[in-house]
Design brief:
single chain; 123 residues; mainly alpha; 2 strands
Length: 123
């Protein structure tokens, strides 16, 4: 529900701003995960790893999130080979929805999402 979407022309310094925002929230202890895509680097543009990357970072960020994600994986071990929309629901949405509302936000930053896979992958 709370999304800040930066958009603009190539070269308008969106990635610089995303990095700055990530650093500010990291210093405040609110940066749950950050992913920076790059179509020129094969490993940085593959959609198949996005959910696993975010899940790993969130698990490292907060033990409660890690425990909820671990429960989801133990309940359905094949989840890591499932389609992305199922991974998203079972490894992110469901575990995060079990947490109590906290005073501080958990910030996720996805930079250059348009460089991740193709249009169908991003959908």
């Amino acid at each position: 529900q709370r999304v800040l979407w930066l958009h603009g022309l190539a070269g308008s310094r969106k990635s610089t701003l995303s990095t700055t925002i990530a650093n500010i929230f990291r210093e405040q202890g609110c940066l749950g995960a950050s992913v920076f895509f790059n179509r020129d680097l094969e490993e940085s543009s593959q959609p198949r790893s996005i959910i696993k990357t975010i899940v790993y970072q969130l698990s490292s960020f907060d033990n409660r999130i890690g425990a909820a994600i671990t429960t989801s994986i133990n309940t359905m071990p094949s989840i890591l080979q499932s389609p992305l929309h199922i991974q998203f629901r079972k490894l992110l949405v469901k575990p995060l929805s079990t947490l109590p509302t906290s005073a501080s936000p958990i910030v996720l930053i996805l930079d250059a999402l348009d460089e991740c896979g193709g249009a169908q992958d991003r959908r």
